[in-house]
Amino acid sequence: MRFSKSAVVIVVTLVIHCCLVGVVAGEAQSNQPSPLSSTYRGPAIEGLTKGYAEYTAGRFDRAIQYYNDAIDSGSLATKKDRADALTLRGDAYRGKHEFEPALRDFSAAIALRPGYARAYVKRGKTYRDAGMYEPAIHDFSEAIRLKPAKAEFWRLRANTYVIMDDLDAALQDADQAVRLDPYNPKALTLRGRIYRATGQEGLAISDFTAAVTNDPNADYAFGQRGISYLKAKKYPEAIADFNRAIALNPYRADYYARRALVFEKIGNRAQAVEDVDRAIKREPKDPYLHFLHGRVLGEIGQAEEAVADYTRALELFPRYAKAYCGRALAMRALGRGAEALADVEQGIKLAPNDGFCAKVRGLILTGSGRAEHIPVEDDAHN
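The structure assignment produced for this chain is given below.
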């Protein structure tokens, strides 16, 4: 499609892309700035227009090709325009999890526009995704310095502090994000998670409730409140929240896995197995889901199948201590004592302080007790 250079066509295109920005779902796409500027001309406007459309459709390779055309066209008139285009292309690389070229583009954009807060945020997210948390904190801090009233920036830094297990710093930033945007469901949900991690379950549930009140379609907030209800042994409330989360977003494997835990707690193991099956269908390479599937199958006497699940979990994550110890229980049920002992010893070697493995070892060595009485902490998807 060819674009006219007339002002009328440019204005129309701007309107179309304003609409596109409003309807794109998901953090990566929704935070990408509009690719159009009134100073763009000729090949640049066509390349950026098509690139942005491909990006929003998740076709990152094609988006990068169009962005290359725009950047290489020589028709980006100002440093601002070039920085915007580089940020757009960097975001497409980030969408592909190609962190090195993404970081290169964001850094080039910042060099052109040292006050470009959005480029700092994009680079910070990329550092975070790559596991480089200190540089991520630096970039989010710079974005906050440039735009201190932007609640999103405080929330992103808080989330990174959570990953780094610096909960005091995380709570301070989350508090600030909520102060700046008190009705923001993402900020409230994040603060609720921090409250829960610090043992303040009442405050956590209050924040999750505020989040779903402000946005009844916030599936993640229902999911997090469901986790808190599960921990509080409020099983009907937990099931209701996971039901709602699944209705809103049926593609999230962890919602099914958490609901399976509730069914397991109330003794409905058949329903638990069905939910873990659904979770594995959505995330077949998640070792925790295979561990959970094996555990529930073991509880209903299907030890052979449980061994297969634990083995699959270990194929996906060879250092998964609990999977070794779970498989040891299933081996014991099958009368394979030597293999059971070898598995539990390997689990303890990997995690010397794991209480579940210690209890399994005691059960195997004494030959007494019932396996289903051994609790395991379900912390994989908190």
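Interim note for the steering committee: Residues 1-31 have pLDDT under 50 and may be disordered. Residues 7-23 form the longest helix (17 residues).
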